[in-house]
Amino acid sequence: MMGLWIFLQAMTVLGVFNYLRHLPTDRKIEAPDGVVVILSVRDDWDGGPDLIASLKAQTASFRLLLATSGDCPSAQALAVKEGDWVQVVAAGVATDEGQKVHKLRAALRALRPEDRWLIFIDADITPPARLVGRLLFPLVRHKADIVTGYRLLLPGRGCMPALVGAVEMQLATMPRSANATMPWGGAMALPRTIAERLDLHAAMAGRLSDDLAIGLAGWRAKLRLRPVRDLLVASPLEGRMAPLWAFGVRQYRHIITNSPGMWFVAMLGVAIQSGAWLWAIGCGGPIAIAIGYGAAWSRVLIRRRIMARTLDAHQVRRAGRSLLWDALAPFILLWAHLAVQLQAALSNRIRWGGWDYWVRRGKVVRMERVKG
Questions:
Q1: Is the pTM of this model over 0.90?
Q2: Domain count along the chain
């Protein structure tokens, strides 16, 4: 058993090191014409002044398409202020699909003839100035058909945000191959020709998860899905235990209701490591525990180097709070991760954006507005 334990811990360290080793150093960008950035916002959106400032600072130019339900004063005010740079599309209220998907499908219908490159982002990200240009680079150079960054949660004060951030950091710094990449809707791009080839409007119809719908359609079409490894895009994380735990469950419930096989593989990996830690603490003795902590501290050091090469300095300090969990209690991190995965399998109801959705095989089969 000791040999297996050493092997498992070594693999976790090598996996993170492999991510570091493949981080691009040149960070080349492209800035073609015909770029549109699509952003879905809720009707109570505050206008995102920090996000808009970050978008204006991008190294590549684009048009911003705001997808709303139809009653978002901040979006309308921004369009009036910014002129032709910002366009607003009103989707109305969905009846048989996720509200975000409903808005994105309306945005696809509102594309102009000159729109050649589509970039999807989320409203809660803090994008670096290179975001648009870096996403476009593999597409313009014909190195990929769909490209994606990955969310890196920046926890606020408290143990729970740091714990959720630690789980997300584990996922963010996993090695990725073209065959195992699933796009993240917070920073995702594809040429319009690929969108039309996949018929994204139809591919997302009736779905709750936009990125999983696009990713699975890309897999089935055998497209080249590529991660841009240096785009770990910061996203602030605040809150108390209950809503943050629910956030984690919701993420995995998206996965299991779309692809049970993907959920099972992810759960199995965490379950093996969780069980191995139980053995180390209960039967392995001080040497096994020392090996586990040695691997954990090695991962922390490597992840600090990854963050230093992908985030701004103030973001590195904030993201570093998540590293404390892997340094001090890696077994609790794994057990919490496994508990979230297992809880996600207990129901097909997903509460998101003020709605309750019941999902089967990726399709919304029932939806109700959350009262109160």
A1: yes
A2: 1
